[in-house]
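Action item from last week, closing it out:
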Amino acid sequence: MAKRRPQQLTKEQRRQAARKAALALRESERKKRQRTWIISVVATLVVVGGLVAIGLTLGGRGSDKTSAKGDSTIDRSSAILVNTAHGADGKTVDGISSSGSEQLAFHVHSHLQIYVNGKQRNLPYGIGIVPPLSVQSEGGQSFAGGGKAIYWLHTHDESGIVHIESPVQRTFTLGNFFDIWGQKLNAQQVGPAHGKVTAYLNGKEFSGDPTKIKLGAHQVIQLDVGKVIAPKSYTFPAGV
């Protein structure tokens, strides 16, 4: 049987075939450019998003004091007199420094209890500890173990125990403690509480400026704002 000769394309058919091939090539190039553009846009968005996140992180740090005001680690219990949002931010206060760890060359404890019109108001944890605080739960109570820095005078919990932990032995006063706390103390004011202030030291009424009350080993201090409460004793935990 004789082989069939391949059908010859007419001139017009060849022209149409060439046109289709050219259109197909242009469409392929268009899709390629579109894919490249999409990839470029996505990459740009990723970079911009990363820069925004970094900016928010750095911007959120702010100064130490600003950070403290909005810091979720500070004590905001309703039982405390006032929190530590306006406390010292690491700079030296009354000649008292802060550092990255506790200084234990001179290590004693005092106790402070405050009554406002007959109602006890606790000290917050973290006085003298620069946020962000390392807060844990100990015996069902919150405990600030440390933070960005810690002053020689500080509190770890709401028990009223004031820790005096210094690299040198010197005299510290209740006024020093309130200055680090960022709160006022005088004969008519204890922090945000206003009224006549009656102070007791070791069960005896203290006459004079309450800021001059000396802190020392097992000193028991009581401040009554307004209504006077009979001085209460305090037993320090074993080993404190």
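Closing note: The first helix runs from residue 11 to 61.
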